[in-house]
Design goal:
- The complex is a heterodimer of chains A (492) and B (476).
- Chain A has two domains: 71-284, Jelly Rolls, CATH 2.60.120.200; 328-491.
- Helices cover 2% and strands 42% of the residues of chain A.
- Chain A is built from two helices and 29 strands.
- In chain A, the strands form five sheets. In chain A, strands 6, 8, 9, 11, 16, 17, 18 and 20 form an eight-stranded antiparallel sheet that branches. In chain A, strands 7-10-19-12-13-14-15 form a seven-stranded antiparallel sheet, with no helix packed on it.
- In chain A, a hairpin with a 5-residue loop joins β13 (167-173) and β14.
- Chain B has two domains: 70-278, Jelly Rolls; 314-475, Jelly Rolls, CATH 2.60.120.
- In chain B, 1% of the residues lie in helices and 45% in strands.
- Chain B has one helix and 28 strands.
- In chain B, strands 5, 7, 8, 10, 15, 16, 17 and 19 form an eight-stranded antiparallel sheet that branches. A seven-stranded antiparallel sheet of chain B has the order 6-9-18-11-12-13-14, with no helix packed on it. In chain B, strands 20-21-28-23-26 form a five-stranded mixed sheet.
- In chain B, β2 and β3 (52-55) form a beta hairpin.
- The longest helix of chain B has 7 residues, at 280-286.
- Chain B is globular.
- The chains are: A mainly beta (492), B mainly beta (476).
- At the A-B interface, β1, β2, β5, β7 and β10 of A face β1, β2, β3, β4 and β5 of B.
- β1 (22-23) of chain A pairs parallel with β1 (24-25) of chain B, so a sheet runs across the interface.
Chain lengths: 492, 476
Amino acid sequence: MAIIDGGLSSLNKANVDANYNLQVRTPISGTQAGFVALEAEIDPGTYNNGVRIVQPLDASYDSRLRVAVDTPLFIDRFAGAAQNTTLWNYANTNNTFAQANGWASINATALVAASNYGLLKSYRSFPTWAVFGTSFNCWMQLSQLATTYNTTEWGLGIAATTAAPTDGVFFRLTAAGALNCVISSISTGSYQETYVTAPGGAAYVGQNITHRFTIKCQSDQATFYIDGNVVAVVTRPAAGDFINASSELPVFFRTYTLGGTAAVGQIMRISAVEVHMQDALTSKPWADIMCGMGQHGSQGQTGGTMGSTAAYTNSTNPTSAAQANTTALITGFGGAALTTAPGIAGGAASGGASTDYIITNYANAAGTNAIPGRTLYIHGVRVGCVNLGAAVTTTPTTFTLNLNYGMTSVSLATTEAATTKKPRIIPLGTMYFPVASVIGATPQNGDVWMPFAAPITVAPGENVSVSFRCLVGSATASELFYFTVGFDSYWE
Amino acid sequence: MPYIDGASGTSTKANVDANYNLLVNTTFTGVQAGFAAINVQTDSGVYTNSPLYRKIDASYDERTRLGVDTPIFTDRLAGTSVNTALYNTATAAMTVVQSGGFASLNANLNNGNGSYATMQTYRTFPSSPPFGGKTYISAQLYSNPFTGNITEMGFGLVNTNGAPSDGVFFRYSGTTLYTVVNNAGTEMISGTNVTIPSGTTHMYEIGWNGNMTEFRIDSNIVSIMSFTSGSSVGYDFPTAVNDLPIFVRTYNNASTTPSQSLKVSEIAVFSLDAAINKPWADVLAGMGGIASQGQTGNPMGSTALYTNSINPTQTFPTNTSAVLGSGLGGAFLLSGTIPIAATDYILCDYQVPTGTNTVPAKTLYIHGITVAATNLWGTASPQVTHGITVAYGHTAESLATTESASSKAPRFLPLGTISLPTGSAAGYTTSPLVFPFVAPIVVNPTEYISINSRFLAGTGLPANIQYQIGFDGYWE
């Protein structure tokens, strides 16, 4: 009977360390090295009836280790005190929506009446394409384990009111406390569900405990996770076409009461949602990723004012205002602005002052614990101008235009200090109105357009503005100019 | 048999755990570390009865060589009609019907001799060495394979029910599944012992690089066909040309009983290994996802409002509805008197289709807009100046749509100005207003995008103006 009984530092014997591990060493000659095949443990099976899931790694035909990269499609946290209506649609009967302290709450007041529902769904849908996967993630808690006549669902799917979903891949907590992991199909001609009940059910979800729920979708199976642990793997029916019907699904969260009054009101509280495209190298540009999440610079962001960031109101002309170096004609991220009479004195060539006048200014909101302090990336700016005053028969009008950014207050005279920043100025170009330009005339040399391969970035608490200086012109009372400013930009 | 019998907790002896595993540990001293070569099991041998391992390689400069996959094509056969932007179908006596997530070839279960149904992609896919590629076709057979029917799927050049003239593909012939490499009509065929039950969906995979073709079903290898330079098969690359379409077809070469139908639910093609850095817009456009054409489940053809040899309807636009017509760009004709009011008028309007379980709810990414106006009034045209905006995101057609928990107001972005000067002749056209976006405008399902004009000059004057509006965009 061979016994390896060398202790620590026993000569000529295999040694054992203080933790009773035999000390071993693979060959130091590379040519003698044997193979080890790589495998990844997807899940140890702790919460999935002890079913350990492993996946061998693969190599391509040319011996390259095949690797997977994920591309984010959607990331949102429910900061602030208002629904981000750019991203989310909320429909309900009685069950109210509330947002506070980082939580979006569905059925915030815990109503119990029959036929009540609250449904939060994303405006955009997300691809569930062939071969490479889609991953849905949310951080959420429920106020109740389960309650009579109540159904609570979350994941990817198409649902309305209290009716059964017509498509989707999602979790469902039933009134009886079962946590079902559901996939769907219409391959047989009508909507059908297939589900696996997760071990532990509602008790695993618990009350008022935040969990990360994940669903990884592939063509032939969906894997459901809670806090990184697999709780169910639901396989496409053998004759089915896919794990769901449509190749594009929105995110949805819903709680509803049907058939009777619930014993207690169920409240869904969601703190974050993420959706990722898995595996494939998409090379999706960052600007496209950000804009796909609703973060185009032209619309307000979570915690801010919803709608356009531009100062542009449907069918309403801007009010003319006195142009100034320290205040803007309009407050907005671009928009339409109107100068005021008396006209704009030209610069030295026309005997006037060389003042830079702010057309439009936008203050990027400083971050707080309720307003995410986002950074604005500007990849282009376009400025148009129209003469709305009487034709000037004696003098042409020439404007130079600048983009100003980084200053910590609106004024272009803001100075640089330890706690303040003065504007960084980029000349955009020049506009020219010849003598006798009529009402409605646009610059003879067209709008000014400047694209930026290297984007201008505006940090929270900083301003960005577009200004003009009149190089040549006449201070005629009838002078009136209508500016339009548009940006190519995104929020990060 | 020698064995090591150290129990758990026996000091100075190698221990075994409760599962009888010897506890071992590698050295903590880096310079004493030995080597282990890395292998991966690429196939467990379900069909070949022999697992296949591949080694992991390193570059000359000791970097681990990695392979990343880039999607070239991916499509799910959703909806109730074939996406004619992507697929060409040819039939004789058999029909092709799409529903329930499948395109069914020979949906009518024709069993006559000579009948066929073929569906192939319009686009072709490169198979250039040294980088590999892989295609996936998810499909099921209505009947188990039988004599008198041939069913094929893969890459290749096929026509009606004639013999393929090039390609690599699976072939059910008689009761056997074959894998086929066809080089300019010369076929190398390998029979398999694989039995795939009818009525169940399986993923048929064909991978290739410069000198081999690998056939898998549900990730399990069924056949590998190799080619090397100077090989006895007479050619050193599987196919004669390196750009081939994907095809699926079924045909009868005798009157049959029962009938065969091939149901296809998804098709995908990936480029393997190389970081080709193909821009995402190019990837999607390569899949037929250019914004200018309708997508799966929606009307096929142009999304623009532009009908061959037909002028647009002329009227005066409004703020609340797209009376000039709906389309993602196109030609729009204004006729009427320029008003005094500071109204934004919808020139062009498009609603991104709402998703259902048969219409994939795609998202529209706009990377550029161009607008030009042409005076059709005559030489006495007034000065007409437009402030052009794009509005997007609104959940109803009207630009007056308000923001609420379940509706969205339009997001306005000024694009610039265009004008028709006084005295411009009939036919005078403005320089095109071009606004490219690095940061794309994204329009979600059910939302609208519109191009609008606010008239800054020309009040009270009659006008007749045609707008040419184009979009640079893609569907995701």
